[in-house]
Structures are given as structure tokens and as C-alpha cells.
Amino acid sequence: MTAAVYHIPVMLAQCTEGLAIDPNGTYVDLTFGGGGHSRAILNQLDRGHLYGFDQDEDALANVPDDPRFTFVQANFRDLKKYLRLYGVKQVDGILADLGISSHQIDEPSRGFSTRFQGELDMRMNQSAAVSAKEVLNTYDEGKLHRILGMYGEVKNAKTLAQAIVSERNQSPFSSTEGFTAFLKKFAPRGKEFKYFAQVFQALRIEVNDEMGALEEMLLEAVEVLKPEGRLVVMSYHSLEDRLVKNLIQKGKFHGELEKDFYGNPIRPLEPVSRGAVVADAEEIEANPRARSAKLRIAKKVKL
Ligand SMILES: C[S@@+](CC[C@H](N)C(=O)[O-])C[C@H]1O[C@@H](n2cnc3c(N)ncnc32)[C@H](O)[C@@H]1O
């Protein structure tokens, strides 16, 4: 397994520029994956150090042999705890390139892809307790309805949730192929793959508690950043991007920006980039995965 085919890093230059790297600083790549972004950060470090997190043990195969790098096989929601373990209280910059890697999608046994035959798994952390199979075969109808509607924006979420519950009573779901064959009946004609992708996205977000992990991580990231330290987050769907954007612009996930007596915004971060940075046409042509990427860059407010 080589890093080149594991994952092509998206907006590499924009991410490292966003971090405004101090060669002697301490950095965190929260989503190490194939290590593309990490290697680019290491190239700019001198006496600095980089901590690379990934909850997927497959990422271990890509760890560089470099004394300035430490791999942390953990969920990024526990950022503070693990940094403390290494005696790190504050860092100069944090990068998160959310979602799953091409390796995870392309490996049939991981169950992320609508195109391959595999178990309905979808766990990024292979030791986690709940897989997509458990979600489909045990969640009650109301919960399935909510997940499909909220995380997949599936239009007929209620009908589909009902059908899942009655189907599994006859034969429980186990393979991706069996599940997509079942989904076909509910998909709009000619848009089957888009529909499958929406349903799979919803399951994946639930299995990995992606929204919960993102909220916890963002709050911890704000705490561990030095004043003026950079937060660089790349997301691939609007639910994630909304959380990141709201925290940067409004200082909270929900609700409006508050101001102090003098009219200064009360928020722990301030935007560095105007709006979201997106990939250019050339990159999208070479790497279609870059199409949906939205990059937001912020710095910790100096008190
Ligand atoms: C889009 S890929 C990152 C690719 C990487 N930037 C590169 O250049 O190869 C996302 C990676 O983050 C990991 N990941 C996603 N959510 C995570 C979480 N909550 N905690 C730890 N790792 C996570 C996934 O396992 C995956 O390997």
C-alpha cells in the first residue's frame, strides 16, 4: 500500500499556507490518513513537531520515519487528552481534513462504497462497537427517519425508514450489495447512485458520530491553540461546514454573534479567509474529490 494511492491530498498548498507554519512550532494534523498533508507540513518544519491523529489503524502504514512526527491512533474528539499525554498544552496550528479517505472508500471490506460488494460496516475505527449493520437492523423507525433526513437529506426518509424496519424483520441487512438492491425501489429513476450516496452518507455519519466528534474537537481545538494560532478545517458536506463556519464567525454552533459593550465581537476565533476557500478547476479536474471541499481558515483571538 503506497501513500500515493491511499489518498490524494486536497488543496495542499492552501492548507499549509493557512497554517502559517513556524518552522519551530508545534502542529497537529487531526486526520492523518495517507499523510499527504502531514508530509507537506513536515517539509516546512525545522525543530518543530507534528502530531498526526487518525482513528483508523490502516493509516499506520503511512507513518513517516521522522523524529519530528508522532502518530496518535485515536479519535480527534479526545485531542486535549492525548496532547496532555505527550506533555503538550498549547499548539501553533491545527489542521482537520474531515470525512473518509479514498483508501477507506476503495477498500470493499470497509463497506463505505455503494459500488462494491462488502459488509455493511462503515466504521472508521475498526474496533468501534457499532457498524452500519447494527444501525440498520436495530435502530427504531423514528431514529432511522431522523438520521436519513438530517444526515443524508433523503427526501423520502420516512417511507424508507418504515420499509427498512419491515424488511429487516424478514431478512436482516448484511451486505452493501443487498442493501443497495433494496434501496433501488425507493430511489428516483436515473438518480439511483445519488440516492445511494445520500443514504450511505447518513449511515456513515451516524456510525462514526461524525457531528458529535466534530463539535467536541472544535471546542478542544480552540482551547489548545495559542493566541494567534491557526485552525484550518476542510469539510465535504454542508452540515460539517455549517458548524465550522458558525464557530468561526459567530463564536458558537447555533445562535447569533454577541458583541461586548464597545461593539467588539465576542468569539474565540476570527476568520483569516473571506468565506470558504474552494479548489480551482484544474485541481477538480485532476481529483474530483476536491469538488465538494470547503476550506475555512481562522486564528485564535489574542486577548
Ligand atoms: C479525508 S481523510 C484525510 C486525508 C489526509 N489529509 C491525507 O492527506 O492523506 C480523513 C481521515 O481522517 C480520519 N478521521 C475522520 N474522523 C476522525 C476522527 N473523529 N478521529 C480521528 N480520525 C478521523 C479518517 O480515518 C481518515 O483517514
At a glance:
This protein has 303 residues and is of the alpha/beta class. The chain has 13 helices and nine strands. The protein starts with a helix and ends with a strand.
What this model shows, in words?
The protein has 13 helices and nine strands. With 303 residues, the chain is of the alpha/beta class. The protein folds into two domains: 3-102 and 210-300, Rossmann fold (3-Layer(aba) Sandwich); 129-207, Putative methyltransferase TM0872, insert domain (DNA polymerase, domain 1). The strands form two sheets. A seven-stranded mixed β-sheet has the order 3-2-1-4-5-9-8, sandwiched between helices. β1 (26-29), α3 and β2 form a beta-alpha-beta unit. α7 (141-152) crosses α8 (157-170), α7 (141-152) crosses α10 (192-207) and α11 packs parallel to α12 (238-250). The longest helix is centred in the middle third of the chain and has 16 residues, at 192-207. It starts with a helix and ends with a strand. The mean pLDDT is 96. It binds S-adenosylmethionine. S-adenosylmethionine binds next to α3.
How are helices and strands ordered from N to C? HHEHEEHEHHHHHHHEHEEEHE
CATH superfamily annotation of the largest domain: Vaccinia Virus protein VP39
Q: Find the CATH topology of the largest domain.
A: Rossmann fold
Helix content: 40-55%
Biggest sheet strand line-up: 3-2-1-4-5-9-8
CATH architecture of the largest domain: 3-Layer(aba) Sandwich
Question: Strand-residue fraction?
Answer: 5-15%
Gyration radius over CA: 20 Å
Using the alpha-carbon principal axes, give the shape.
globular
Q: Compute the number of helices.
A: 13
Distance between the termini: 46 Å
Arithmetic mean pLDDT:
96
Q: What is the count of distinct domains?
A: 2
User: What structural class results from the helix and strand content?
Assistant: alpha/beta
Number of strands: 9
Unreliable runs = none
Largest sheet: 7 strands, mixed
Briefly, what CATH class of the largest domain? Alpha Beta
**Which hetero ligands occur in this complex?**
S-adenosylmethionine
GO biological process, one term: rRNA base methylation
Pfam family, one: Methyltransf_5
Function: Specifically methylates the N4 position of cytidine in position 1402 (C1402) of 16S rRNA.
Catalytic activity: cytidine(1402) in 16S rRNA + S-adenosyl-L-methionine = N(4)-methylcytidine(1402) in 16S rRNA + S-adenosyl-L-homocysteine + H(+)
